[in-house]
Amino acid sequence: MKNHALIPMAAAVLLAAAGCDKQSSETTRKLAELEQKNHEAADRQRALEQELEDQKLAAERDAIERERVRIEEDRAALERQQGEEAARQDEAIRQREAALANREGKLEQFQSALAKKEDELQRETEQLSDRDRELAGREALNVAQTDQTEPVADYGLFYDSLASYGSWFETSDYGYVWQPAAVRDSNWRPYSRGRWACSDRGWTWVSDEPFGWATYHYGRWTLIRNRGWIWVPGAEWAPSWVSWRENDSHIGWAPLPPETLAYRGHSWDSTVDVQFSIGARNYSFVEIRHFGSPIYNYCLPISGNGDYFQQTTNITYVHIANRQVICGGPKYKKVSDRIGRPLPFYRLEIDRHPRPNRDATGMRPRIKGNHLLVSAPNIDVAWNDGLKPKRIKDRLESVTVERDGKLSAEISDRYRRSREEGRQQAKVSAVQAGGQEKLEQRRERKRQDETDDLAETPGALPQRNLPEAEKPVVRQPDKRPHASLEEVPAVPADEGVMETPEPLPQQPLDEPIDSARDQENQREDVAEVQEDGRKQQRQVESPRRDQQDEMPRKQDEQARQLRQQEKQREAEQVREAQNEVVRQQREEMRVQRQQQEHARQRDQERAQRQQQEEQQEEMQRQQDKAQQRQQEKSQRRQQNQDRQRQQEDNQRQQDRAQQRQQEENQRQRAQDDSREKQQKEKDEDQRKRNR
Question: How far, CA to CA in Å, does 106 sit from each of 53, 112, 117, 166?
């Protein structure tokens, strides 16, 4: 806006100077220089304001994450308490969470506005050729081979830096893993709070989270059942570690699993989903028209991932070029055409040195013109697997990874072997160093040396990777530059003006001066000649000097008018912005009150329903128990009756059997008596005949 307002003023100056035939070209050239310098001053101001806004944004996000961790710690302590005091503290924590959500919402709005402003600034940056536009997003563009640098840190950098934003756990499958406090939010996913930037090394994730420099460029993420997302450390840096899917309307990405850590220097193509069973629940999808914006506001609900997964095709192309990892995904040209404007394109500048631990935002990515500055310290040391965090929250005995299927035995065995090799290397390194204690002393000395080296240039990134013109400016915190003509240096008086004629030389004296009078007369003649020369010089210089004096006055007047107009516009914009903020705050408070009221009503209704359901369930349980007891009594009574009848039947059968036996015995005795009687009669008859 300032540059457009300067054009009419420059035209007025040009018309005012048109009467001077000899100086018209010089005036035009001066005006062009002034306009160019004003443009440069405005660019510097925008860059400085952008850097200040970035710093404020990073500090606010860091404060939000730290507040989230404190809330989590307070919640954990609250769970160990009982009674009314715990209820009051729980209410206070809920209020803090609501305030935190409100702050985060405002931060997201500010981030969206800042992203739009960055996009406007990037439209004046490097233009890509047609061939580069076709290759961007898939291939490396003019990436030079880098020499292998010495390690400057180890896993201890992760263990110390990330402890402020989450918790470390110990697992049997993956070793020490980290989980952010933000995982309590059911909508949180890796690679969701930030934006994608197309660079000369593929798609680079620019995270808004203070721990993003580590967790999205080193190591891998995996989803654990009933636990959430966890991060497994790794030593290899990349712009991102994701698998890509797309169709004509949507783009999706998912973190690569930890098992890929066993394949260092390996390329991954469209078969990676099948090889490692990466399913729909691991993906984040957005509409392609929102791909260039901050992702968090446009991530589609995970409930629709199944449909998006079936409707998209895998386009992953992670490969190695000149010993650097290239994250190939969607084509830059296709995305830009679908969005309707060219996305910013960046050249990556790598900072190989870690920031001191006290610098919470020193590792965040920063944009300088068309360069994206990222922190990527080399942490590839042999003793990494022998280190452990200072504070471990818990040990996870068994973890179940959310996958669409089982990994092949080859992949599982290779990952186990790689972990075992890492542990063996750590043991060997400790032995070579003279024991674990001496190894720790060596690490501490190296960390102190790094801190001392960085202390020499506090608050700034190392400049050896940047061109001279693109080194960041060290800004005083209490002084903000204003892009106006006041900053433009004045044009020197001897620049762009006709040369002043030299003073007339003294007349040479060919004949000697014989007397003092002649000598005096000669001096007077010479003085007259010199005075005439000076008069002529003043006559020539007078209009030029007047014109030179007039131009600064005109420039000052123009500058004052411009400053006054700019101040008025800025005041109006500030008032409008303040009014808009007040309206937004009131609207947010009204919406928040409504939401709280609705939530309170829902909670009351839910509590009432739950109480009624519990009462009904209790009554039903009591009825079921009474019926069960009645049935048991009936069953016991029936069983007793059955047993009694059975006993009676048995007794009757026994009685009948005894009766039959007695009757049989009686018949047998009767028969015996009859036979005996008959025998006696026969014997008697025989005796009688014998007589």
Answer: 14, 10, 17, 23
pLDDT tens, 326-359?
Answer: 999 999 988 988 888 888 888 898 887 766 444 5
DSSP 94-146: HHHHHHHHHHHHHHHHHHHHHHHHHHHHHTTSPPPPHHHHHHTTTS--SPPPP
Residue range 119-138: mean pLDDT, rounded = 67
Residue of 182, 215, 177 lying closest to 399 (CA atoms):
177
Opening angle at CA 630, ends 624 and 635, nearest 5: 120
Cα 317 from Cα 325, distance rounded (Å): 10
Q: Could you give the CA distance from residue 233 to residue 177 in angstroms, rounded to a whole number?
A: 7
CA distance 97 to 323: 45
With tokens 């402020």, the residue in question is: 164
Alpha-carbon 413 to chain mean position: 32
Q: Comparing C-alpha atoms, which of 333, 327, 325, 307 is closest to residue 315?
A: 327
Residue corresponding to tokens 């965090």: 389
Residue identified by tokens 């009685």 is 655
CA torsion through residues 539, 543, 548, 550, sign: positive
Helix axes 84-122, 24-79, angle to 10 degrees: 160
Q: Which residues pair with 328 in a beta bridge?
A: 317
The amino acid occupying position 111 is: Q
Q: Which helix (H) or strand (E) holds 649?
A: helix 516-690
Global pTM?
Answer: 0.55
Q: Is the dihedral of CA 202, 208, 210, 211 positive or negative?
A: negative
pLDDT at 312: 95
For residue 153, give the nearest of 218, 232, 239, 105 by alpha carbon. Answer: 218
Q: For residue 237, which of 175, 315, 327, 362 has the smallest C-alpha distance?
A: 327
What DSSP letter does each residue of 307-334 carry, written as one string? HHHHH-EE--EEEEETTEEEEE-S-HHH
- Specify whether the CB–CB gap between 384 and 154 falls below 8 A: yes
Residues 6+ apart with CB under 8 A from 47: 121, 368, 369, 473
DSSP symbols for 539-601: HHHHHHHHHHHHHHHHHHHHHHHHHHHHHHHHHHHHHHHHHHHHHHHHHHHHHHHHHHHHHHH
Q: Could you give the dihedral angle defined by the CA atoms of residues 600, 605, 608 and 614, in that order, rounded to the nearest 10 degrees? A: -110
- Report which of residues 249 and 140 the model is more confident about: 249
**Contact at 8 Å (CB) between 426 and 385?**
yes
The most confident of the ranges 101-115, 446-460, 556-570 is 556-570
